[in-house]
Amino acid sequence: MKFLKSVEPIHIVLLLLLVIAGITGFVLMSEPPVDATGVAHATIPAMSVGGDGASKLATIGKAPFYFQIAVILLAGALLYMGVAPHKRDRTLLLFFAGGVGFALFVWVMLFTGYEHYILTGETTVFLGFPMPTNWMFWGVWGSFAAFDLFYVIFFRRYFFTPDEEAEFDALVEELKSERGDA
Amino acid sequence: MEELRQPIILGCVAAYMGLCIWVGIWAMRRTKSAGDFFVAGRGLGPVVVSLAVFSSTLSGFGFVGGPGLVYATGMSSIWMAVCSALGYATGFYLVAKRIRMVAEVRDTMSLPDVVFARYGSETARLLTAGTILLGVLGYLATQILAMALVLQSILSATEMFADISLLASVVISSAVLIFYCVTGGILASVYTDLVQGIVMIIAGALVVITAASVFDGGFAEATGILLANDGEDVMPFGTLGTMASLSWYFLFGLGLAGQPHVATKMMMNRKLADNRVILPMTVLGYVVAAMLWVSIGVIMRALVIGDIALPLGAADEAAPAFLSTYAHPLLAGIVFAGLFAAIMSTADGFLNIGAAAIIHDIPKAIRGRSLNNELFWARTATILLSVVAAAIALYSDKLVGLLGAFGWGTFAAALVPVVIIGLNWKGATARAAIVAITSSLAINFAIQLWQIQIPYKMSGGFLAMLTSMILFIIVSMMEKQKPLPRDIDRVMDL
Q1: Residues A162 and A114 in one domain
Q2: What residues contact B79, with CB distance under 8 A and at least 6 apart?
Q3: B141 close to B389: Cβ distance less than 8 angstroms
Q4: Which has the closest alpha carbon to A78: B9, B405, B469?
Q5: Residue B228 banded pLDDT, cuts 50, 70, 90
């Protein structure tokens, strides 16, 4: 318990960066399949095709899936650092847990939808695009747009409270009088 | 109407350029000091700042390169755009408040000033300024080249300017840019950004509507064609695959707040509380404008793959080809103006921070004070920087490629740990900042110089950024924390 209390967001950030580095290292050392990054289109210049999606993941397996989970957690930890320690209360923690949880849910839906497609060749088209692509457009963007919305709604509670505004104004005045500007 | 297509496009572009010149003259009367020139006296309202932030982020790359990338590789590059909500969240959660506070208590004019205030290290300031200068030269050269190529393509379609050279196009387009940047400094830059941002939003929205009507069945029909032919291209990772896409998400999502031309604009708002309004306007503006990226790319790819349109010679022709074939002449005119807006709004920001690096930051780091008569030298440096960048653009393709690729990744890798983490963690040290910047520059340069091919086409900038972030934290943790200056310490408590 005492150990957990001594853990700060920066430690989590470092841990997640190391996890991402580890996964990246694994990917870099694996042997890429021939069409890992697509192949040139047979007849159309300046265009590539994706080829067999399943073979692209043959040597790295679920590494991209875990990579992005670590990135989402890292993004959450970094954003959490943006709230001053004395303002980090239970509500904030709940929002962050919910927000990051939603981002992870979106990612799971996106990746499993993509896996389903590369295994079966089937997908549902919704709003003009395949479902996994919709999860990317609206889900990946929307999950962090929720953090933007949180910033707007709770600006005066977590990001720039009236007390902080007064404290900052006082600091500016203090520095001005020290410099003899006032 | 169709026969008037070229005159209408030319008219829209000319009107836009005229507006930029007028803003330059207007801003000149309000620019009386270096502070006005570089940070607009920290007196801008929320609408201006939000449009300036978003239009600086979305450069000509988004309007020309983006659709081209979707045409060439499907959805892979869209990860650079869908990360914008995270990118701006990172910027506003971690940078916007602190950087504006430091700017006020230390009367800073540039990002290197802020780095010095935070770390108390002239070496860190010098490295930050050097990084900015290198990145700016490359980025600016690519923007000037893009601007000239677009102008040349528009003018050469008319009888009068059919044989216009690239040099003449560089001179004409750069002259407008230089004029308003030199006369009005950042004030002209942000107010033209305001115009540019509005033009980009209108262009983005109208293009989506137009693109959706190219096929009778809308985007679903285009998707059907792509699914029937390859399928991977219209799935979320495009043809480049998972790791290339996700490395871009990391670099662009977490790296946005490290872009100096974006971070600098966060110092310019009149009131700190305006950040609450600036963030949502920025996010929405970007999203609407970026829709052009995906919609043109997908439609052009489906048209060519479906044998409805002829293949393009180069992927970057996707946007011009779409506009000249499928868009109403007036819309084409607005979008071409929007294209110039996207390029110029980024270029003017670069000119400003580049000039600050030359006449303010580097002299301060080396001799302890900036140049006398900063305003005069700021204007001179702006011209000098433009001429050098234009020369690089015209006469050194290799250097453009090298420095251009250096741009975003370099800024993100070098400055994200130093700025984003450093402004929110008191344990960060000057030595760690120096190590982070140096290592990121070394990695980025090595990758570019030796043309190192990274497996799975992962971004080199991502590798540099990941390394610099890890080194930054570990080096800081290994060192004993030094007390911060009182004002910075109090700012970091707020």
Answers
A1: yes
A2: A136, A140, B245, B246, B248, B249, B252
A3: yes
A4: B469
A5: very high
* Angle value at C-alpha B267, between A93 and B374, nearest 5 degrees: 160
Tens-digit pLDDT profile for residues A107-127 = 999 999 999 999 999 999 999
| Closest CB from A10, A38, A151 relative to B73 | A38
pLDDT category at B1 given cuts 50, 70, 90 is low
The 10s digit of each residue's pLDDT in A127-151 is 999 999 999 999 999 999 999 999 9
Check if CATH label 1.20.1730.10 holds for domain B2-396.
yes
Give the orientation angle of helix A141-153 with respect to helix B275-305, to 10 degrees. Answer: 160
Q: Are B449 and A107 in contact (CB under 8 A)?
A: no
Tokens of B431: 């030595």
- Structural domain boundaries enclosing A107: 88-182
Helices (H), B107-217: 111-119, 122-155, 166-212
Taking each helix axis from N to C end, the angle separating B122-155 and B5-28, rounded to the nearest 10 degrees, works out to 150
Any idea which residue has 């010098």 for tokens?
A: B126
On the CB side of A143, CA atoms within 13 Å amount to 28
Residue B293 near residue B342, CB atoms below 8 Å: no
**Chain A closest-CA separation from residue B461 CA (Å):** 13
Contacts of B83 in chain A (CB under 8 A): 140-141, 144
Query: Which DSSP string corresponds to B252-263?
Result: HHHHGGG-HHHH
In this structure, the answer to whether residues A99 and A172 fall within a common structural domain is yes
| Short-list B357, B293, B322, CA closest to B139 | B357
CA distances from B182 to A118, B187, B380, B382, B385 (A): 54, 10, 8, 6, 11
**Do residues A5 and A55 share a domain?**
yes
- Crossing angle for the helix pair B374-395 and B166-212, nearest 10 degrees? 80
pTM: 0.92
Do residue A174 and residue A96 come from a single domain? yes
- Confidence tier at B61 by pLDDT (50, 70, 90): confident
Cβ atoms B263, B95 nearer than 8 A: yes
Which of A71, A13, A19, A28 has its CA nearest to residue B474? A13
Residues A137 and A63 in one domain: no
Q: How far apart are the first and last CA of chain A?
A: 50
Structural contact between residues B229 and B3, judged by C-beta atoms closer than 8 angstroms: no
Q: How far is A62 from chain B (nearest CA, A)?
A: 10
Q: Are B37 and B358 in contact (CB under 8 A)?
A: no
State the total domains in chain A.
2
Question: Which residue in the block uniquely carries the two structure tokens 């700060």?
Answer: A8
Residues 26-45, chain A: which have Cβ within 8 Å of B?
27-28, 30, 32, 36-38, 43-45
Q: Which range (A139-143, B58-62, B297-301, B485-489) has the least confidence? A: B58-62
Domain end: A48, A64, A81, which one? A81
pLDDT reading at B402 higher than 80: no
Same domain, A99 and A76: no
Q: Quick one: pLDDT at residue A35?
A: 84
**Residue B214 sits at the chain A interface (C-beta within 8 Å):** no
**Same domain flag for A126 and A75:** no
Query: Quick one: pLDDT at residue B316?
Result: 81
- Annotated domain spans of chain B: 2-396
- Which of A118, A164, A171 best probes binding to B when mutated, by most B CB atoms within 10 angstroms? A171
- Does A170 lie in the same domain as A150? yes
Where among A46, A81, A116 does a domain terminate? A81
Measured between beta carbons, the chain B residues lying within 8 angstroms of A14 are 470, 473-474, 477
